[in-house]
Amino acid sequence: MTPEQVDIYRKASETGAISDEMNPLYLFSITHTHLLIRILSGELDARVLAGMELNRRNHELGKDFPADGIQKKAVQKKTVGKSKGRKL
User: Fold this and answer.
1) Which CA distances in Å does 44 have to 34, 41, 58?
2) What domain range includes position 37?
3) 42 SS3 class
4) Of 22, 23, 37, 74, whose CA is between 20 and 30 Å from 11?
5) Interval 46-75: pLDDT, tens
6) What is the pTM of this model?
7) pLDDT at residue 58, as a whole number
8) 53 in a domain, yes or no?
């Protein structure tokens, strides 16, 4: 965010022109410090977390993010055939 944007959102908050839940300045106001540290250190990716939440809300922008946070591995099918030493 630019300093100008911060100023705009501060003024909008003071005048009531924007609700707190829509104000990006308050996005992390209730987030635990430990989680903020993990985001800043790169251990957690806030963009991925936002995408997962949008997926759970059935929003178009979240379609490429797994709602449960787990990438599904391609299922490998077992084939039955003659091969040495292979047990199925």
Assistant:
1) 11, 8, 22
2) 3-62
3) coil
4) 37
5) 999 999 999 999 999 999 998 776 665 544
6) 0.67
7) 94
8) yes
